[in-house]
Protein backbone atom coordinates (compact mmCIF):
# COMPACT_ATOMS: atom_id res chain seq x y z
CA UNK A 1 0.00 0.00 0.00
CA UNK A 2 1.41 3.38 -0.87
CA UNK A 3 2.57 5.54 2.00
CA UNK A 4 1.40 9.07 2.72
CA UNK A 5 3.17 10.85 5.53
CA UNK A 6 1.61 14.29 5.44
CA UNK A 7 -0.88 15.15 8.16
CA UNK A 8 -4.03 17.03 7.31
CA UNK A 9 -3.76 20.51 8.73
CA UNK A 10 -5.92 23.62 8.54
CA UNK A 11 -5.35 25.35 5.23
CA UNK A 12 -4.13 22.17 3.52
CA UNK A 13 -5.71 21.01 0.28
CA UNK A 14 -9.01 19.23 0.90
CA UNK A 15 -7.62 16.09 -0.69
CA UNK A 16 -9.83 13.19 -1.72
CA UNK A 17 -13.03 12.80 0.34
CA UNK A 18 -14.63 9.43 0.95
CA UNK A 19 -17.39 8.50 -1.46
CA UNK A 20 -20.89 8.07 -0.06
CA UNK A 21 -20.93 4.31 -0.69
CA UNK A 22 -17.54 3.80 0.92
CA UNK A 23 -18.45 5.86 3.97
CA UNK A 24 -21.83 4.13 4.32
CA UNK A 25 -20.51 0.57 4.02
CA UNK A 26 -17.53 1.00 6.34
CA UNK A 27 -19.24 3.11 9.00
CA UNK A 28 -22.48 1.13 9.14
CA UNK A 29 -20.64 -2.18 9.33
CA UNK A 30 -18.38 -0.81 12.09
CA UNK A 31 -21.39 0.44 14.03
CA UNK A 32 -23.07 -2.96 13.77
CA UNK A 33 -19.96 -4.88 14.83
CA UNK A 34 -19.42 -2.70 17.89
CA UNK A 35 -23.11 -2.69 18.83
CA UNK A 36 -23.19 -6.47 18.58
CA UNK A 37 -20.07 -6.82 20.71
CA UNK A 38 -21.25 -4.50 23.48
CA UNK A 39 -24.75 -6.05 23.60
CA UNK A 40 -23.79 -9.66 24.20
CA UNK A 41 -23.23 -9.38 27.96
CA UNK A 42 -26.79 -8.09 28.34
CA UNK A 43 -28.09 -11.08 26.37
CA UNK A 44 -26.32 -13.79 28.38
CA UNK A 45 -29.03 -14.40 31.05
CA UNK A 46 -31.68 -14.80 28.33
CA UNK A 47 -29.41 -17.06 26.28
CA UNK A 48 -28.73 -19.13 29.40
CA UNK A 49 -32.46 -19.55 30.05
CA UNK A 50 -33.19 -20.64 26.48
CA UNK A 51 -30.22 -22.94 25.93
CA UNK A 52 -29.78 -24.34 29.43
CA UNK A 53 -26.08 -23.40 29.42
CA UNK A 54 -24.70 -21.87 32.61
CA UNK A 55 -23.50 -18.29 32.69
CA UNK A 56 -20.02 -19.54 33.55
CA UNK A 57 -20.02 -21.54 30.32
CA UNK A 58 -21.45 -18.69 28.28
CA UNK A 59 -18.66 -16.31 29.26
CA UNK A 60 -16.82 -18.13 26.47
CA UNK A 61 -19.16 -16.36 24.07
CA UNK A 62 -17.24 -13.22 25.04
CA UNK A 63 -13.75 -14.59 25.64
CA UNK A 64 -13.90 -16.76 22.51
CA UNK A 65 -14.82 -13.74 20.40
CA UNK A 66 -11.85 -11.77 21.69
CA UNK A 67 -9.48 -14.74 21.49
CA UNK A 68 -10.14 -15.25 17.78
CA UNK A 69 -10.13 -11.50 17.15
CA UNK A 70 -6.65 -11.23 18.66
CA UNK A 71 -5.36 -13.94 16.32
CA UNK A 72 -7.03 -12.53 13.19
CA UNK A 73 -6.83 -8.74 13.46
CA UNK A 74 -3.38 -8.40 11.88
CA UNK A 75 -3.71 -11.29 9.43
CA UNK A 76 -6.97 -9.98 7.98
CA UNK A 77 -5.29 -6.67 7.14
CA UNK A 78 -2.39 -8.48 5.51
CA UNK A 79 -4.78 -10.60 3.46
CA UNK A 80 -6.48 -7.42 2.27
CA UNK A 81 -3.16 -5.92 1.19
CA UNK A 82 -2.29 -9.01 -0.86
CA UNK A 83 -5.60 -10.26 -2.25
CA UNK A 84 -7.67 -7.08 -2.26
CA UNK A 85 -9.12 -5.06 0.57
CA UNK A 86 -12.64 -4.98 -0.84
CA UNK A 87 -12.58 -8.75 -1.36
CA UNK A 88 -11.47 -9.46 2.20
CA UNK A 89 -13.91 -6.87 3.58
CA UNK A 90 -16.73 -8.66 1.73
CA UNK A 91 -15.51 -11.97 3.11
CA UNK A 92 -15.71 -10.46 6.60
CA UNK A 93 -19.28 -9.33 5.97
CA UNK A 94 -20.25 -12.77 4.67
CA UNK A 95 -18.69 -14.46 7.68
CA UNK A 96 -20.44 -12.04 10.02
CA UNK A 97 -23.82 -12.75 8.42
CA UNK A 98 -23.24 -16.50 8.66
CA UNK A 99 -22.16 -16.27 12.29
CA UNK A 100 -25.26 -14.26 13.19
CA UNK A 101 -27.45 -16.95 11.63
CA UNK A 102 -25.59 -19.73 13.46
CA UNK A 103 -26.01 -17.96 16.81
CA UNK A 104 -29.67 -17.09 16.28
CA UNK A 105 -30.53 -20.66 15.27
CA UNK A 106 -28.51 -22.30 18.05
CA UNK A 107 -30.38 -24.30 20.64
CA UNK A 108 -27.29 -24.90 22.76
CA UNK A 109 -24.61 -22.91 24.48
CA UNK A 110 -21.97 -24.65 22.36
CA UNK A 111 -23.58 -23.34 19.18
CA UNK A 112 -23.68 -19.79 20.53
CA UNK A 113 -20.03 -19.97 21.60
CA UNK A 114 -18.93 -21.40 18.25
CA UNK A 115 -20.87 -18.71 16.38
CA UNK A 116 -19.33 -16.00 18.51
CA UNK A 117 -15.83 -17.34 17.81
CA UNK A 118 -16.52 -17.05 14.08
CA UNK A 119 -17.93 -13.60 14.74
CA UNK A 120 -14.64 -12.63 16.36
CA UNK A 121 -12.83 -13.36 13.09
CA UNK A 122 -15.42 -11.54 11.00
CA UNK A 123 -15.57 -8.51 13.28
CA UNK A 124 -11.79 -8.09 13.28
CA UNK A 125 -11.76 -8.38 9.48
CA UNK A 126 -14.51 -5.79 9.03
CA UNK A 127 -12.78 -3.29 11.31
CA UNK A 128 -9.31 -3.77 9.86
CA UNK A 129 -10.22 -3.79 6.18
CA UNK A 130 -12.94 -1.17 6.53
CA UNK A 131 -10.50 1.39 7.90
CA UNK A 132 -7.93 0.37 5.31
CA UNK A 133 -10.43 0.95 2.50
CA UNK A 134 -11.19 4.40 3.89
CA UNK A 135 -7.52 5.24 4.17
CA UNK A 136 -6.45 4.33 0.64
CA UNK A 137 -9.45 6.07 -0.96
CA UNK A 138 -9.00 9.40 0.83
CA UNK A 139 -6.32 11.99 1.50
CA UNK A 140 -5.77 15.25 3.33
CA UNK A 141 -8.75 16.72 5.11
CA UNK A 142 -10.98 14.22 3.33
CA UNK A 143 -9.24 11.46 5.27
CA UNK A 144 -9.58 13.39 8.53
CA UNK A 145 -13.35 13.71 8.03
CA UNK A 146 -13.71 10.07 7.02
CA UNK A 147 -11.81 8.76 10.05
CA UNK A 148 -13.78 11.09 12.35
CA UNK A 149 -17.09 9.75 11.04
CA UNK A 150 -15.81 6.18 11.29
CA UNK A 151 -14.70 6.77 14.88
CA UNK A 152 -18.06 8.31 15.76
CA UNK A 153 -19.90 5.33 14.25
CA UNK A 154 -17.73 2.97 16.28
CA UNK A 155 -18.46 4.87 19.50
CA UNK A 156 -22.20 5.11 18.83
CA UNK A 157 -22.35 1.37 18.17
CA UNK A 158 -20.66 0.60 21.48
CA UNK A 159 -23.06 2.94 23.33
CA UNK A 160 -26.35 1.78 21.83
CA UNK A 161 -25.57 -1.95 21.74
CA UNK A 162 -26.69 -2.76 25.30
CA UNK A 163 -29.84 -0.63 24.92
CA UNK A 164 -30.86 -2.21 21.62
CA UNK A 165 -29.97 -5.69 22.83
CA UNK A 166 -31.99 -5.28 26.02
CA UNK A 167 -34.95 -3.84 24.12
CA UNK A 168 -34.96 -6.77 21.69
CA UNK A 169 -34.71 -9.37 24.49
CA UNK A 170 -37.75 -7.81 26.15
CA UNK A 171 -39.55 -7.65 22.81
CA UNK A 172 -38.83 -10.39 20.25
CA UNK A 173 -36.12 -12.36 22.05
CA UNK A 174 -32.33 -12.33 22.09
CA UNK A 175 -32.17 -13.91 18.65
CA UNK A 176 -33.59 -10.71 17.20
CA UNK A 177 -30.33 -8.84 17.68
CA UNK A 178 -28.42 -11.29 15.51
CA UNK A 179 -31.06 -11.40 12.78
CA UNK A 180 -31.15 -7.61 12.58
CA UNK A 181 -27.36 -7.39 12.56
CA UNK A 182 -27.25 -9.98 9.77
CA UNK A 183 -29.75 -7.99 7.73
CA UNK A 184 -27.82 -4.74 8.11
CA UNK A 185 -24.53 -6.44 7.22
CA UNK A 186 -26.20 -8.00 4.18
CA UNK A 187 -27.34 -4.55 3.05
CA UNK A 188 -23.69 -3.43 3.10
CA UNK A 189 -22.72 -6.09 0.54
CA UNK A 190 -24.34 -4.58 -2.60
CA UNK A 191 -23.23 -1.11 -1.50
CA UNK A 192 -19.65 -2.40 -1.29
CA UNK A 193 -19.83 -4.19 -4.64
CA UNK A 194 -21.26 -1.24 -6.52
CA UNK A 195 -19.62 1.71 -4.82
CA UNK A 196 -16.15 0.68 -3.64
CA UNK A 197 -13.17 0.12 -5.88
CA UNK A 198 -10.79 -2.77 -5.24
CA UNK A 199 -7.33 -1.94 -3.95
CA UNK A 200 -4.26 -3.87 -2.91
CA UNK A 201 -0.58 -3.24 -2.22
CA UNK A 202 1.47 -4.47 -5.19
CA UNK A 203 4.75 -3.79 -3.36
CA UNK A 204 3.94 -5.92 -0.35
CA UNK A 205 5.38 -9.39 0.01
CA UNK A 206 2.76 -12.08 -0.57
CA UNK A 207 3.97 -13.87 2.54
CA UNK A 208 1.22 -14.22 5.17
CA UNK A 209 2.10 -15.33 8.69
CA UNK A 210 -0.58 -18.00 9.06
CA UNK A 211 1.62 -19.97 11.46
CA UNK A 212 1.80 -16.97 13.77
CA UNK A 213 -1.98 -16.59 13.64
CA UNK A 214 -2.53 -20.21 14.66
CA UNK A 215 0.10 -20.02 17.39
CA UNK A 216 -1.42 -16.88 18.94
CA UNK A 217 -4.68 -18.81 19.29
CA UNK A 218 -2.73 -21.81 20.61
CA UNK A 219 -1.21 -19.61 23.33
CA UNK A 220 -4.44 -17.92 24.34
CA UNK A 221 -6.90 -20.84 24.25
CA UNK A 222 -5.26 -23.09 26.88
CA UNK A 223 -4.22 -20.10 29.00
CA UNK A 224 -7.79 -18.80 29.11
CA UNK A 225 -9.12 -22.30 29.77
CA UNK A 226 -6.81 -22.61 32.77
CA UNK A 227 -7.88 -19.17 33.99
CA UNK A 228 -11.57 -20.00 33.58
CA UNK A 229 -11.50 -23.46 35.13
CA UNK A 230 -8.70 -23.13 37.68
CA UNK A 231 -11.04 -22.55 40.62
CA UNK A 232 -13.00 -25.74 39.84
CA UNK A 233 -10.14 -27.95 38.71
CA UNK A 234 -7.67 -26.73 41.31
CA UNK A 235 -4.87 -24.32 40.46
CA UNK A 236 -2.25 -27.03 40.82
CA UNK A 237 -4.28 -29.74 39.09
CA UNK A 238 -2.99 -31.67 36.09
CA UNK A 239 -5.55 -29.98 33.88
CA UNK A 240 -4.48 -26.44 34.76
CA UNK A 241 -0.76 -27.20 34.68
CA UNK A 242 -1.19 -29.02 31.37
CA UNK A 243 -2.99 -26.03 29.85
CA UNK A 244 -0.28 -23.66 31.04
CA UNK A 245 2.41 -25.98 29.66
CA UNK A 246 0.68 -26.02 26.27
CA UNK A 247 0.43 -22.22 26.30
CA UNK A 248 4.12 -21.94 27.15
CA UNK A 249 5.16 -24.33 24.38
CA UNK A 250 3.00 -22.44 21.88
CA UNK A 251 4.56 -19.15 23.03
CA UNK A 252 8.07 -20.52 22.46
CA UNK A 253 7.06 -21.78 19.02
CA UNK A 254 5.51 -18.39 18.24
CA UNK A 255 8.75 -16.55 19.04
CA UNK A 256 10.73 -18.98 16.88
CA UNK A 257 8.34 -18.52 13.95
CA UNK A 258 8.28 -14.73 14.23
CA UNK A 259 12.07 -14.58 14.06
CA UNK A 260 12.14 -16.46 10.76
CA UNK A 261 9.16 -15.35 8.65
CA UNK A 262 9.42 -12.54 6.12
CA UNK A 263 6.31 -10.70 7.30
CA UNK A 264 5.87 -11.50 11.01
CA UNK A 265 2.58 -11.09 12.82
CA UNK A 266 4.51 -9.38 15.64
CA UNK A 267 7.83 -7.70 14.90
CA UNK A 268 9.75 -8.82 17.99
CA UNK A 269 12.32 -6.09 17.41
CA UNK A 270 9.72 -3.49 18.43
CA UNK A 271 9.27 -5.08 21.85
CA UNK A 272 12.50 -3.41 22.93
CA UNK A 273 10.75 -0.02 22.83
CA UNK A 274 9.76 0.87 26.41
CA UNK A 275 7.19 3.47 25.37
CA UNK A 276 5.52 1.04 22.98
CA UNK A 277 5.42 -1.67 25.65
CA UNK A 278 4.05 0.72 28.30
CA UNK A 279 1.37 2.07 25.95
CA UNK A 280 0.43 -1.42 24.75
CA UNK A 281 0.03 -2.76 28.29
CA UNK A 282 -2.05 0.33 29.12
CA UNK A 283 -4.31 -0.50 26.16
CA UNK A 284 -4.56 -4.12 27.32
CA UNK A 285 -5.49 -3.04 30.86
CA UNK A 286 -8.00 -0.45 29.68
CA UNK A 287 -9.77 -2.84 27.33
CA UNK A 288 -9.67 -5.60 29.91
CA UNK A 289 -11.10 -3.51 32.75
CA UNK A 290 -14.02 -2.05 30.77
CA UNK A 291 -14.94 -5.40 29.23
CA UNK A 292 -14.62 -7.21 32.54
CA UNK A 293 -16.75 -4.63 34.32
CA UNK A 294 -19.48 -4.67 31.67
CA UNK A 295 -19.66 -8.45 31.97
CA UNK A 296 -19.98 -8.26 35.75
CA UNK A 297 -22.57 -5.51 36.05
CA UNK A 298 -24.70 -6.79 33.15
CA UNK A 299 -25.23 -10.04 35.04
CA UNK A 300 -25.45 -8.48 38.51
CA UNK A 301 -28.08 -5.94 37.48
CA UNK A 302 -30.33 -8.63 35.98
CA UNK A 303 -30.07 -11.22 38.74
CA UNK A 304 -33.42 -11.64 40.55
CA UNK A 305 -31.63 -11.72 43.92
CA UNK A 306 -30.00 -8.30 43.44
CA UNK A 307 -31.44 -5.49 41.31
CA UNK A 308 -33.72 -7.73 39.20
CA UNK A 309 -33.63 -5.35 36.23
CA UNK A 310 -35.09 -6.33 32.89
CA UNK A 311 -32.61 -6.68 29.98
CA UNK A 312 -33.60 -3.25 28.65
CA UNK A 313 -33.29 -1.68 32.10
CA UNK A 314 -29.89 -3.32 32.51
CA UNK A 315 -28.79 -1.94 29.15
CA UNK A 316 -29.99 1.49 30.20
CA UNK A 317 -28.17 1.09 33.52
CA UNK A 318 -24.84 0.59 31.73
CA UNK A 319 -25.33 3.81 29.76
CA UNK A 320 -23.37 6.00 32.23
CA UNK A 321 -20.32 3.85 31.53
CA UNK A 322 -20.53 4.08 27.74
CA UNK A 323 -21.48 7.76 27.80
CA UNK A 324 -18.62 8.51 30.19
CA UNK A 325 -16.19 6.74 27.88
CA UNK A 326 -17.37 8.71 24.86
CA UNK A 327 -17.98 12.08 26.53
CA UNK A 328 -14.34 12.65 27.43
CA UNK A 329 -13.12 11.89 23.90
CA UNK A 330 -13.24 15.52 22.64
CA UNK A 331 -11.25 16.63 25.69
CA UNK A 332 -8.36 14.20 25.21
CA UNK A 333 -6.26 15.79 22.43
CA UNK A 334 -6.09 19.21 24.05
CA UNK A 335 -5.51 17.68 27.49
CA UNK A 336 -2.51 15.81 26.07
CA UNK A 337 -1.22 19.00 24.44
CA UNK A 338 -1.52 20.89 27.73
CA UNK A 339 -0.39 18.25 30.22
CA UNK A 340 1.47 15.58 28.25
CA UNK A 341 0.75 11.93 27.61
CA UNK A 342 1.89 10.45 30.91
CA UNK A 343 -0.14 12.75 33.18
CA UNK A 344 -3.32 12.24 31.14
CA UNK A 345 -2.95 8.45 31.16
CA UNK A 346 -2.09 8.55 34.87
CA UNK A 347 -5.13 10.71 35.66
CA UNK A 348 -7.32 8.39 33.64
CA UNK A 349 -6.16 5.30 35.46
CA UNK A 350 -6.46 7.15 38.80
CA UNK A 351 -10.12 7.94 38.08
CA UNK A 352 -10.72 4.35 36.97
CA UNK A 353 -9.02 3.07 40.13
CA UNK A 354 -11.33 5.22 42.25
CA UNK A 355 -14.39 3.92 40.41
CA UNK A 356 -13.36 0.30 40.83
CA UNK A 357 -12.45 0.87 44.50
CA UNK A 358 -15.94 2.20 45.17
CA UNK A 359 -17.41 -0.96 43.65
CA UNK A 360 -15.27 -3.08 45.98
CA UNK A 361 -17.51 -1.71 48.76
CA UNK A 362 -20.70 -3.09 47.15
CA UNK A 363 -23.31 -4.48 49.54
CA UNK A 364 -26.30 -6.68 48.86
CA UNK A 365 -28.73 -3.84 49.66
CA UNK A 366 -27.21 -1.38 47.15
CA UNK A 367 -29.71 0.07 44.68
CA UNK A 368 -28.78 1.26 41.23
CA UNK A 369 -28.03 4.84 42.28
CA UNK A 370 -25.02 3.65 44.25
CA UNK A 371 -23.48 2.23 41.05
CA UNK A 372 -23.82 5.36 38.90
CA UNK A 373 -20.84 7.37 40.20
CA UNK A 374 -18.37 4.43 40.12
CA UNK A 375 -19.42 3.58 36.56
CA UNK A 376 -18.96 7.17 35.38
CA UNK A 377 -15.59 7.53 37.11
CA UNK A 378 -14.26 4.30 35.71
CA UNK A 379 -15.48 4.84 32.16
CA UNK A 380 -14.43 8.49 31.96
CA UNK A 381 -11.03 7.54 33.32
CA UNK A 382 -10.53 4.84 30.71
CA UNK A 383 -11.72 7.30 28.08
CA UNK A 384 -8.75 9.47 29.02
CA UNK A 385 -6.42 6.48 28.66
CA UNK A 386 -7.52 5.10 25.28
CA UNK A 387 -6.56 7.88 22.91
CA UNK A 388 -3.15 8.80 24.36
CA UNK A 389 -2.13 5.16 24.84
CA UNK A 390 -3.22 4.18 21.32
CA UNK A 391 -1.34 7.02 19.71
CA UNK A 392 1.72 6.73 21.96
CA UNK A 393 2.04 3.12 20.82
CA UNK A 394 2.56 4.27 17.23
CA UNK A 395 4.34 7.59 17.76
CA UNK A 396 7.22 6.01 19.66
CA UNK A 397 8.51 3.99 16.69
CA UNK A 398 10.03 4.84 13.32
CA UNK A 399 7.55 5.71 10.58
CA UNK A 400 8.20 2.45 8.74
CA UNK A 401 7.22 0.53 11.89
CA UNK A 402 3.97 2.38 12.63
CA UNK A 403 1.83 -0.27 10.95
CA UNK A 404 3.43 -3.05 12.98
CA UNK A 405 3.07 -1.07 16.21
CA UNK A 406 -0.64 -0.44 15.61
CA UNK A 407 -1.08 -4.18 15.00
CA UNK A 408 0.53 -4.98 18.35
CA UNK A 409 -1.72 -2.51 20.18
CA UNK A 410 -4.87 -3.86 18.55
CA UNK A 411 -3.92 -7.42 19.36
CA UNK A 412 -3.40 -6.32 22.97
CA UNK A 413 -6.89 -4.81 23.05
CA UNK A 414 -8.46 -8.16 22.15
CA UNK A 415 -6.20 -10.10 24.52
CA UNK A 416 -7.10 -7.78 27.39
CA UNK A 417 -10.82 -8.19 26.77
CA UNK A 418 -10.52 -11.99 26.70
CA UNK A 419 -8.20 -12.37 29.68
CA UNK A 420 -10.00 -9.99 32.02
CA UNK A 421 -13.45 -11.33 31.21
CA UNK A 422 -12.24 -14.85 31.99
CA UNK A 423 -10.49 -13.68 35.16
CA UNK A 424 -13.38 -11.70 36.65
CA UNK A 425 -15.84 -14.44 35.72
CA UNK A 426 -13.72 -16.95 37.64
CA UNK A 427 -13.29 -14.72 40.69
CA UNK A 428 -16.95 -13.72 40.72
CA UNK A 429 -18.19 -17.31 40.44
CA UNK A 430 -15.75 -18.92 42.88
CA UNK A 431 -16.13 -16.28 45.59
CA UNK A 432 -19.91 -16.32 45.25
CA UNK A 433 -20.00 -20.10 45.50
CA UNK A 434 -17.76 -20.00 48.57
CA UNK A 435 -20.05 -17.55 50.35
CA UNK A 436 -23.12 -19.59 49.45
CA UNK A 437 -21.46 -22.70 50.84
CA UNK A 438 -20.78 -20.87 54.11
CA UNK A 439 -24.51 -20.24 54.54
CA UNK A 440 -24.86 -16.66 53.30
CA UNK A 441 -27.87 -15.61 51.24
CA UNK A 442 -27.80 -15.40 47.46
CA UNK A 443 -27.72 -11.60 47.37
CA UNK A 444 -24.84 -11.44 49.86
CA UNK A 445 -22.91 -14.08 47.92
CA UNK A 446 -23.39 -12.25 44.62
CA UNK A 447 -22.28 -8.96 46.17
CA UNK A 448 -19.19 -10.64 47.62
CA UNK A 449 -18.31 -12.09 44.21
CA UNK A 450 -18.71 -8.72 42.51
CA UNK A 451 -16.66 -7.02 45.23
CA UNK A 452 -13.73 -9.40 44.90
CA UNK A 453 -13.78 -9.22 41.10
CA UNK A 454 -13.74 -5.41 41.28
CA UNK A 455 -10.76 -5.63 43.61
CA UNK A 456 -8.91 -7.36 40.77
CA UNK A 457 -9.92 -4.54 38.42
CA UNK A 458 -8.78 -1.96 40.99
CA UNK A 459 -5.33 -3.55 41.12
CA UNK A 460 -5.16 -3.56 37.31
CA UNK A 461 -5.97 0.15 37.16
CA UNK A 462 -3.35 0.81 39.83
CA UNK A 463 -0.77 -0.91 37.64
CA UNK A 464 -1.90 1.41 34.85
CA UNK A 465 -0.96 4.45 36.94
CA UNK A 466 2.59 3.11 37.19
CA UNK A 467 2.71 2.48 33.44
CA UNK A 468 1.88 6.12 32.77
CA UNK A 469 5.48 6.90 33.73
CA UNK A 470 6.69 5.08 30.60
CA UNK A 471 4.18 6.87 28.41
CA UNK A 472 5.44 10.21 29.75
CA UNK A 473 8.44 9.83 27.45
CA UNK A 474 6.23 10.20 24.37
CA UNK A 475 6.42 13.64 22.81
CA UNK A 476 3.67 16.26 22.73
CA UNK A 477 2.51 17.66 19.42
CA UNK A 478 0.09 20.37 18.47
CA UNK A 479 -3.54 19.38 18.07
CA UNK A 480 -4.58 18.73 14.51
CA UNK A 481 -8.04 17.93 13.12
CA UNK A 482 -7.38 14.21 12.76
CA UNK A 483 -6.82 13.94 16.50
CA UNK A 484 -10.52 13.83 17.23
CA UNK A 485 -11.26 11.07 14.75
CA UNK A 486 -8.40 8.96 16.04
CA UNK A 487 -9.47 9.54 19.64
CA UNK A 488 -13.09 8.68 18.86
CA UNK A 489 -12.06 5.34 17.41
CA UNK A 490 -9.49 4.54 20.08
CA UNK A 491 -11.82 2.63 22.43
CA UNK A 492 -12.03 -0.12 19.83
CA UNK A 493 -9.26 0.41 17.32
CA UNK A 494 -5.84 2.06 17.03
CA UNK A 495 -5.82 4.37 14.03
CA UNK A 496 -2.38 5.02 12.65
CA UNK A 497 -0.95 8.49 13.31
CA UNK A 498 2.53 9.75 12.54
CA UNK A 499 4.52 11.97 14.85
CA UNK A 500 1.96 12.57 17.56
CA UNK A 501 0.38 11.20 20.67
CA UNK A 502 -3.04 10.91 22.13
CA UNK A 503 -4.55 11.75 18.83
CA UNK A 504 -2.58 14.99 19.02
CA UNK A 505 -1.29 14.73 15.50
CA UNK A 506 -3.56 14.40 12.53
CA UNK A 507 -4.47 11.07 11.00
CA UNK A 508 -1.91 10.34 8.36
CA UNK A 509 -0.74 7.66 6.02
CA UNK A 510 -3.02 4.80 5.25
CA UNK A 511 -2.28 2.40 8.05
CA UNK A 512 -4.98 1.54 10.52
CA UNK A 513 -5.75 -0.56 13.44
CA UNK A 514 -4.18 -3.79 12.41
CA UNK A 515 -1.22 -3.60 10.16
CA UNK A 516 -3.33 -3.15 7.11
CA UNK A 517 -0.76 -1.21 5.18
CA UNK A 518 2.58 -2.44 6.37
CA UNK A 519 2.67 -6.01 7.45
UniProtKB/TrEMBL annotation:
InterPro entries: MFS, MFS_dom, MFS_trans_sf. Residues 22-476 form the Major facilitator superfamily (MFS) profile domain. It is a multi-pass membrane protein. The keyword Ribonucleoprotein does not apply. Pfam families: MFS_1. PANTHER family: BLR6921 PROTEIN, MAJOR FACILITATOR SUPERFAMILY MULTIDRUG TRANSPORTER MFSC. The lineage of its organism: Bacteria, Bacillati, Actinomycetota, Actinomycetes, Kitasatosporales. This is MFS transporter. GO terms for biological process: response to antibiotic.
